[in-house]
Design brief:
375 residues; mainly alpha; Dna Ligase, domain 1; 4 domains; two-stranded antiparallel ribbon; 14 helices; 50% helix; cell membrane
């Protein structure tokens, strides 16, 4: 090949490579432009989406929506409740927003929100615990009541009858629905064929605020179950470590509740019952006899002790088949923290003082000394 031809070929190759490199640069440039545009569009779209999610659901709305924030709700739970009720547009964006602004300490309660409220207005309301509506009624449910007694109290405040309340809480299909909704609290144990009332013991004793004139029976029951669950939750692990089910713990707590109204006696009485259970001795506690009898009595007679019932602890060993009333938290704590002793017996004198004994002989002496002919 001549020198001239070689130069010509080299020049042509160089030009071809130059054109190829130019083409590659153009393609890379175009791709970069496309990526930049996509990123910009995505950023704008993302910004618009977030901005929209933080705006009121409907700034012109005059609708009022009642929302309950249960005790112990996490920010995730609260965000979910607000989105579900149409108060915010997006629970994830709401959670990011409150985390970015370092907002916390939201208060449980029954609120009335509006879709027209801003995110900051909602947050402020949750922080202050400010309820838009005042409660229409307050109903106090004392400790140591049966479901029948609770039904009677509610029937005196609202439009339904105690019979309607009892019909609902004994409806097997409704109970199964509640078991699905509260799996940590309610189990199939409450549907045992010998249990008189499935929710006995599970309707917590406290003062409840109501924000509507005539709440449904279902809303009342579920509000009470929420309260029971919030009280029980911190003790779940301890109950499990004690070798008890939730149902057994509540049953035990109800017996302690009915045995004494004095807080300083509950742990000691619990210790006696634990000792009896340990030696496979019947609990022989009168409140279970009264529950088995099904009617209030000032004094348990010897003939009452013969009642054949899975609740009568003179006839059955161990705990009865279910709770005999609702309970206070102190009774549950007593179940889990019994006073250690060798006592197997106790009795209350006429002044309400309690006397313990290790043997039946000592117990009978206490009876003669403190009760005379009453026993």
């Amino acid at each position: 090949m001549s020198k001239g031809k070689f130069k010509k070929l080299f020049k042509e190759n160089r030009n071809a490579r130059g054109e190829e490199a130019h083409t590659v640069r153009k393609i890379v440039f175009i791709i970069l432009i496309v990526f930049i545009l996509l990123f910009a569009i995505g950023g704008v779209a993302g910004y618009s989406y977030v901005k929209s999610a933080l705006e009121p659901v409907d700034e012109n709305s005059e609708e009022k929506i009642d929302v309950e924030i249960p005790i112990g709700s996490s920010t995730s739970t609260i965000a979910g409740i607000l989105e579900e009720n149409g108060i915010i547009k997006n629970d994830l964006i709401f959670r990011f927003y409150i985390k970015f602004k370092n907002e916390s300490d939201f208060q449980a309660g029954n609120y009335t929100f509006s879709p027209s409220m801003t995110i900051d207005e909602i947050i402020e309301s949750l922080k202050s615990g400010k309820l838009v509506l005042e409660s229409t009624q307050r109903v106090t449910i004392p400790e140591g009541l049966t479901v029948e007694q609770i039904a009677e109290i509610y029937s005196n405040h609202f439009s339904f009858t105690s019979e309607e309340f009892l019909e609902k809480v004994n409806d097997e299909e409704y109970i199964k629905q509640l078991i699905d909704e509260y799996p940590l609290l309610l189990t199939e144990e409450i549907l045992h064929e010998d249990v008189k009332t499935p929710l006995e013991g599970y309707l917590y004793a406290i003062t409840y605020d109501f924000y509507e004139e005539n709440p449904s029976i279902e809303s009342i029951v579920e509000m009470m179950l929420e309260q029971t669950q919030s009280v029980m939750a911190p003790y779940f692990e301890q109950i499990d470590e004690a070798g008890m089910t939730i149902h057994e713990a509540i049953t035990f707590a109800s017996i302690i509740e009915k045995e004494t109204g004095k807080l300083d006696q509950r742990n000691e009485i619990s210790g006696v019952f634990h000792n009896r259970l340990d030696v496979d001795m019947p609990l022989q506690t009168d409140p279970t006899v009264i529950y088995a009898k099904g009617e209030h009595t000032e004094r348990v007679l010897y003939e009452d002790l013969e009642i054949e019932s899975p609740y009568n602890t003179y006839k059955v060993k161990g705990l009865p088949v279910g709770p005999i009333s609702n309970f206070a938290e102190s009774s549950l704590e007593a179940v889990l923290n019994p006073v250690e002793s060798d006592y197997l017996y106790f009795l209350h004198d006429r002044q309400g003082n309690i006397h313990f004994a290790e043997t039946l002989e000592e117990h009978n002496q206490n009876k003669a000394e403190h009760l005379g002919d009453d026993e």
